[in-house]
Amino acid sequence: MSGLRLADGGGPVIPDFGHGTACLRDNHWFCTSWVHEHWGETLQPALLQHIYLTLLAVGIGFAISFVLAIIAFRFRFLGPPLGAVSDFLYCIPSIALFLLLVPVTGLTVTTLVIPLVAYTLFVIYPNILAGLRGVPPEVLESARGMGFTRRQTFWRVELPLAVPAIMAGLRVATVSTISIATIAAVVLYYGLGGPIFEAISQPDIFRTELVAAGGLTILLALTADTLLTLLQRALTPWNRQR
Amino acid sequence: MPTEAAELVFDEATKVYPGRDAAAVDHLSLTVPAGEICVLVGPSGGGKTTALKLVNRLIPLTSGYIRIDGRQIGDYDVTELRRSIGYVIQQVGLFPHMTIEGNIGTVPRLLGWQKQRIRERVGELLELVGLDPEKDRRRFPAELSGGQRQRVGLARALAANPALMLMDEPFGAIDPIVRARLQDEFLRLQQELRKTVVFVTHDIDEAIKVGDRIAILREGGRLAQYDTPQQILEHPIDDFVADFVGRDRALKALTLKTLGELELSPATEDGLPRLPADTSLRDALAIIVAERRDALLVVGPDGSPLGVVTREDLLR
Fold first, then answer.
1. Cα dist from B237 to B13, B243, B254, B255, whole Å
2. Residues A132 and A158 sit within 8 Å (Cβ to Cβ)
């Protein structure tokens, strides 16, 4: 089902606000009764899809970024070209990228995930690389002097010390993915973008649905950011301010 | 590698960095007897740090040999060699993400010690370097002062009981008061542990204080003189060394002896300034000058008078 419905024909179209209460008939900004009635069939599934989409995109993006960052870290000369690719991906307008993929991957979740993953690379990859490269030289020198192998230095020193930078990248990537994912509804009614597009495609904008779905998106972003911040604190007890 | 103190020999050790004409360390030959502190000192560009890092192969030798208890360093597996040598650097380089316990236990963990043994060893070392074995072990480096961090650095280097310690300006980044205290504690530890130590500094006073022997390197990494502090102060081999140790070398030589080492005359006079027997001759002279006296009363640890020294005795 397409999320984008255009009003067809001329003349004023009376929006179908359902068997409405006065609140709905007057198209108020927020009608609790509608939200209550449509939670189970519209909002909750959209929210769960949105969470799923975000986890999938950030998870895949993180995995790819991690591998690329290790390669660029190990082979320094590959850093600039890999950085250029991730910058380039980020420069493609998201709506264009979603629509460009439709002929290739069809109206599937894959079509939604690919552009989202591409955007997370831009944020996560450079953060991992900067974190790995930011380990103080005296720490590396003492590790080498004490007889760490190259591999031990990476897993026991460089990677743990990169965690704050990696987590910062993950936070930005997650929050921006939650927001960009709403645009994915241009191709597929999926996630919180679905109800948002549904609401704004009504000639008069269905305000309650817009506010409810938009609000859930914001709430989801704030929650994710808080959880990731807590996770970062738990992972880096040494980094806490005195 | 033996865990008793090892003898360290530089034999024509030479380092030329790629693309440079001049050597950084030029045919350096010297022997550090087991259990002694050898201080490498000299102006910058003298190759002190390079010479130190040749030993644990952080920098590869260009030519010549370095032997630890007769065995060439090139014959060891490089990680095995480094794990068996204590290494302390000026910036300490503690692992910020590990607790003090984790930091000190680093080499024992690499060597595969049992957890319980590591825990005990960490407690032992914290006590040895004057930190709290219970409270401090769970703290992170960021919670410590510079002096405390350097103590942890020293404890970490000692953890696996190495036969040889390499110390690169270990007290260089610490304020003078704490530095003096750390030097004293380090010397007290050394009385007990008797490690072979190579100690790099650019500070001749520190070299005189901590060194059993001092190697003075000049620009281009050439050895100018290798001798005891006494010999270097009293008989500098050339103008470079005399210049480097300074015009006050006669005064510096006074820091090497204490009042207790002098022959004292029986106490007759009253009202003389009283100084403990372990006061250096230099400090004693400072007091004689400051208080315009001709003599001092030397007292034992319990305050009992041991005898009198005169200004002439000090300057003899």
1. 22, 11, 19, 20
2. yes
Band (pLDDT 50/70/90 cuts) for residue A4 is: very low
Q: Please give the ipTM for the structure prediction.
A: 0.83
- CATH fold of the domain at B8-253: Rossmann fold (3.40.50)
The tens digit of pLDDT for each residue in B227-255 reads: 999 999 989 999 999 999 887 877 888 88
Phi, psi of B158 (to 5 degrees): -85, -10
Q: Do B83 and A147 touch (CB under 8 A)?
A: yes
Domains of chain B by residue range: 8-253, 259-315
Which of B239, B268, B234 lies closest to B252 in space, CA to CA? Answer: B234
Top CATH class of A39-239 equals: mainly alpha
Distance from CA of B95 to the nearest CA of A (A): 6
**CB contact (8 A) between residue A145 and residue B96:** no
Q: In CATH, what class is B259-315? A: alpha beta
Highest mean pLDDT among A136-140, B4-8, B287-291: A136-140
Taking contacts as CB-CB distances below 8 angstroms, the residues of chain A near B101 are none
What pLDDT is stored for residue A124 in this prediction? 92
Amino acid of residue B196: T
CB A32 within 8 A of CB A219: no
Give mean pLDDT, residues B214-227. 93
Q: Do B97 and A236 touch (CB under 8 A)?
A: yes
Task: Please give the pLDDT value at position A15.
Answer: 54
Considering only alpha carbons, which residue of chain A is nearest residue B88? A142
The rounded radius of gyration (Å) of the Cα atoms in chain B is 22
What are the structure tokens assigned to A85, written together? 């690719």
What's the pLDDT at A19? 59
Could you tell me the pTM of the whole model? 0.82
Compute the distance between CA of residue A18 and CA of residue A21 in angstroms, rounded to an integer.
9
